[in-house]
Each structure stands twice: as C-alpha cells, then as structure tokens.
UniProtKB/TrEMBL annotation:
The keyword Cell inner membrane belongs to this UniProt entry's keyword annotation: no
Pfam families: Dirigent
GO CC annotations, alphabetized: apoplast
Protein family: Belongs to the plant dirigent protein family.
Gene Ontology biological-process entries: phenylpropanoid biosynthetic process
Name by which UniProt lists this protein: Dirigent protein
Assembly and oligomerization: Homodimer.
Keywords noted in UniProt: Apoplast, Secreted, Signal
C-alpha cells in the first residue's frame, strides 16, 4: 500500500513537472540536426536569366498602378504599381514562359526615378515548378545595371540568398511598357 502511494505520488509529481515545463513559454523552440533538412550538404550557386515583361498598356496589362504618386512628383515618388508580370526564357514576349513576377514596385526616391521593388519570382516550369525566390531592393530604373538582393526562397530555393542584376532591354517611352533582363545568382542547398 505504501509502495503504491509512493508510486502514485512520484507519477503525479512527474506529470506536474512535465506539464509546467511545457507551459512556461521558455521551451517552444529547440535546435535540431541540420541533416534533417539536408543542410549538411554544400551550398549550390545557380545562375539563370529571365526576361521580365512590364506591360502597362492594352486590354490586358500585367502591371497596374494602384496608388498615384504624391502631388507634383516628377519621379513617381509615392506611386505604387502591382505586378503579375510574365517571366520568359528569351527577350521576346512569346518565348517560353518560365514563371510570374508577383509583387509591387513603389516610387521611393524624390529626386530621381528610384523604385522600391518587392516581388516573388514564382517558377512554373521543369524541376523548379512551384519554387520561388524573393527579391527586395532598390531599383534606380535609369541606371544601366541595377543590383538587388535575393533575400529568400521556397521549394528548391529554401534558404536562398543572392542577388540579381537588372538591365532594361526594351522600353516604350509612350506607354511605359518595358522588358528587363534579370540575371540571377542564387546560393541555395
Ligand atoms: C504643387 O505645385 C503647385 C503649383 O506650383 C503648388 O501650389 C502646390 O503647393 C504644390 N503642391 C505640393 C504638395 O507641393
Ligand atoms: C514571336 O514573335 C516574333 C515577332 O515579335 C515572331 O517573329 C516570331 O515568329 C514569334 N515566335 C513564335 C514562336 O511565335
Ligand atoms: C506545375 O505544377 C502544377 C501544380 O502542381 C501543375 O498543375 C502543372 O501542370 C505543373 N506544370 C508543369 C509545366 O510541370
């Protein structure tokens, strides 16, 4: 009988100890083995070029202004444009569709044409179908080469980091339509 009471007391004590340890909010996170996510392997450096088609004109624009710039701004400062732009394998719009560039760009410079870019490249072809990379950076659109960071990714691009170089290949000054080459350098596992 005494043994049984002792046994039950120990059980109850352990139960309380375990449940209070789980509840104190200190132990919600733990370190795990990198191997569980394949992170013990060497990082790969992947390079690719895609062509980004910013189409503002016509009946089916992929790039739509949702917020006009502030009054009197000649540099689009304060303007916001949402995009769902086609990414293709070659500079021609009718070349193979690789994915979509989804996000927005906003006028972020008062004295020059400078955009804040925030977008995901959502890939649709081959082994990269369903994977994404996220680009967040400063785009001085009139410079020949604009470098922007790749700050992350998903799918095959989990833990991605890197940068892109953007070069305008074609620009229609009348309606603003443009095709920009994105040369992407991505470190990932
Ligand atoms: C815009 O320009 C007009 C005319 O020059 C001026 O009266 C007005 O104050 C300016 N607005 C802003 C927000 O600077
Ligand atoms: C793509 O468009 C160009 C004209 O812009 C045309 O010459 C070419 O034949 C087209 N290619 C395909 C595969 O449709
Ligand atoms: C990409 O994945 C989607 C969803 O899994 C699928 O419907 C589509 O057919 C795939 N496309 C290609 C080109 O493999």
């Amino acid at each position: 009988m005494t043994k049984l009471i002792l046994f039950l007391a120990v059980q109850i004590f352990l139960l309380i100890a375990v449940s209070s340890a789980g509840d104190d909010g200190e132990h919600f996170a733990r370190t795990i083995d990198r191997k569980l996510l394949g992170l013990h392997k060497k990082e790969k450096l992947t390079h690719f070029k895609v062509y980004w088609h910013d189409i503002l004109s016509g009946p089916n624009p992929s790039s739509i202004r949702i917020q006009p710039p502030v009054a009197n701004s000649t540099t689009y400062f304060g303007g916001i444009t949402m995009i769902d732009n086609a990414l293709t394998s070659k500079v021609e719009m009718n070349s193979t569709l690789i994915g979509q560039a989804q996000g927005f760009y906003a006028g972020a410079a008062q004295k020059e044409l400078g955009f804040f870019m925030a977008m995901n490249f959502a890939f649709k072809t081959g082994k990269y179908n369903g994977s994404t990379i996220t680009i967040l950076g400063r785009n001085r659109a009139m410079s020949e080469v604009r470098e922007m960071p790749i700050i992350g990714g998903s799918g095959l691009f989990r833990f991605a980091r890197g940068y892109v170089e953007a070069r305008t290949k074609w620009l229609n000054f009348q309606n603003g339509d443009a095709t920009v080459e994105y040369s992407c350098y991505v470190l990932h596992y």
